[in-house]
Write a structure and sequence with these properties.
This protein has 394 residues and is α+β, with helices and mostly antiparallel strands. 31% of the residues lie in helices and 19% in strands. The protein contains 9 helices and 17 strands. The protein has a 6-stranded mixed beta sheet with strand order 4-3-2-1-5-6. It has a 5-stranded antiparallel beta sheet with strand order 11-10-12-15-16. The protein has a 4-stranded mixed beta sheet with strand order 7-8-9-17. Helix 6 packs across helix 7. The radius of gyration is 23 Å and the shape is globular. The two termini are 34 Å apart. 43% of the residues are buried.
Amino acid sequence: MATKLPESEFDARLAEVRGRLADTDADAATFFNATSIEYLSGFHHIQTERPVVLAVTQDGLEVTVPRLEVERVEPNPRIDAVHHYFDYPQGNPIETAAEMLEGMGAESVVSDADGAPGVMGYEGPALSEFVEVESQSWVDRMRWEKTDAEVDLVRESAKWANLAHRYLADYTEVGAHPVTVSQNATTDASRAMLDTLGDRYAVRTRGSGPVHAGYISGSETALPHGHTPNERLSEGDVLITGASANIDGYHSELERTMFVGEPSDEQVHYFELMVEAQDIAIGALGPGQSIAGVDEAVHDYFLEQGIEDTAQHHVGHNIGLGGHEPPYIDRGWDDYDHVDEGDETMAPGQIYTIEPGIYTDEYGYRHSDTIAVTENGTEWLTYFPRDLESNIIR
């Protein structure tokens, strides 16, 4: 049971970044993106108006943080030095980062951004006002393929998502409110996970549970990103569910289309079309397979069935530290600005959500499963039943 990345993962990531840095004329690589900083150093934080800047040289790893993060980052064994400013706007985060770089002997950098992102009202100077800056997106690309250790974490996430989804189904009944059902399933699955894993669980939440389960219902299901309605469940309702768990920052995605009571013939019809579309997509996955081609195969099926107008999004996306990551299973993927040769095809270690949806004027129909691409084919990581009978609430 994998619950935390081994130290060797960070060693390998930093070694790759340093190898890429050696191929440039820059003295350091800098990172402003919170997920990239976590990926390389293991220091995870919430990206706010207070910038955090990580700097990597061939022999050092240093970070600039706001004062409130100092105690959180200092115990990190991979970080050699912590620099801080008091707060924003009274502090000078980019100036502090520039001083850090000067101390590291870095006059030029390759960076994932020319300054901190403008979130939560942050407005600050560009890093290039202080050092020479060239752009890079190394970590974004490195995250596409997961190592065996990362796949293990997503596999563990899928296990707890499955439990949460089972609670969700068990607690659903006519007259229940979707919000309270979701809260109860989330709470009970989180409690079971924490009780089972104990101190092996790597805490990544602030007050919320490590597992989440919920659904949208009724007419909101006709909207791919619908909201939970403020109405109790009725006989004949369609549900689109979702469950996941946070395992050392990694996530899976499990979604099902469920019915409260016996579905109508029309509902069964669209459910079966949706499941067939997902089967087609999953059957097209594998190493060396065209990423755009998977979406094309589903699109062709929808055209054949005369329901192409019910599709509102592509087939799926990569998943890991982020809920949505490239590559995207989209017919336009071949036109994407790829980084490396061969990026148009699937590779072992990529983990995809497969979620073709059908949306009528009344309801939506979508399953989502998390599937890893392996050397020889694929591995299903999520495993809640997909058939009609298993998804009827009686």
